[in-house]
């Protein structure tokens, strides 16, 4: 858990220094996977984290496809200074989180483990079902509007 938390902090700091859209998308995907893993460990049920990772990765992959079609010919540069800085930050954060008071960071007794069940109880089941149907309808409409036969998202000269 400490390793995941320190990686999340380092990836957040690295994301602020990047300027290429594809590298930003890669960092976003890695942060999504780590967030899902942390949620799974904290709640002790990976079902909610699976749902989060599917939703976030599908949105990130749509952005990745759009950016790949728009910025396809840009050069990708890796900075040695940025790599060394991120390694040093990772080591520092890992040491700080490892030696800190663990009861402050993750106290599983305070987490309401049945809080995820509340969205599906009888009082809110109708609203949840309406939201699911609305999102499905919106996805079908957007899929029909964006026709595959009309080509890519941008016009080529």
Automatic annotation (TrEMBL):
Keywords assigned by UniProt? Electron transport, Membrane, Mitochondrion, NAD, Respiratory chain, Translocase, Transmembrane, Transmembrane helix, Transport
Q: Where in the cell is it found?
A: Mitochondrion membrane
Q: Name one GO molecular function term.
A: NADH dehydrogenase (ubiquinone) activity
The record describes its membrane topology as: Multi-pass membrane protein
Give the EC number(s) listed in the UniProt record. 7.1.1.2
Q: Entry's InterPro entries? A: ComplexI_Subunit6 (IPR050269)
GO CC terms, sorted:
mitochondrial membrane
Identify the main location: mitochondrion
Tell me the domain of life: Eukaryota
- Top EC group: translocase
Q: Which reaction does it catalyse?
A: a ubiquinone + NADH + 5 H(+)(in) = a ubiquinol + NAD(+) + 4 H(+)(out)
Q: Which residues cross the membrane?
A: 21-41, 47-66, 78-99, 119-146
Q: Which family does it belong to?
A: Belongs to the complex I subunit 6 family.
Name under which the protein is recorded: NADH-ubiquinone oxidoreductase chain 6
Q: What organism does the UniProt record list as the source?
A: Eysarcoris guttigerus (White-spotted globular bug)
């Amino acid at each position: 858990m400490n390793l995941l938390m320190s990686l999340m902090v380092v990836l957040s700091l690295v994301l602020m220094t990047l300027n290429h859209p594809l590298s930003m998308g890669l960092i976003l995907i890695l942060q999504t996977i780590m967030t899902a893993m942390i949620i799974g460990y904290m709640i002790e049920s990976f079902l909610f984290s699976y749902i989060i990772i599917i939703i976030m990765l599908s949105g990130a992959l749509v952005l990745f496809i759009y950016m790949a079609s728009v910025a396809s010919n840009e050069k990708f540069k890796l900075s040695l200074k940025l790599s060394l800085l991120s390694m040093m930050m990772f080591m520092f954060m890992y040491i700080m989180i490892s030696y800190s008071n663990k009861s402050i960071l993750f106290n599983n007794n305070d987490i309401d483990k049945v809080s995820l069940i509340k969205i599906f109880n009888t009082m809110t089941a109708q609203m949840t079902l309406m939201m699911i149907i609305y999102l499905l309808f919106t996805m079908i409409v957007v899929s029909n509007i964006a026709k595959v036969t009309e080509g890519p998202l941008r016009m080529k000269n």
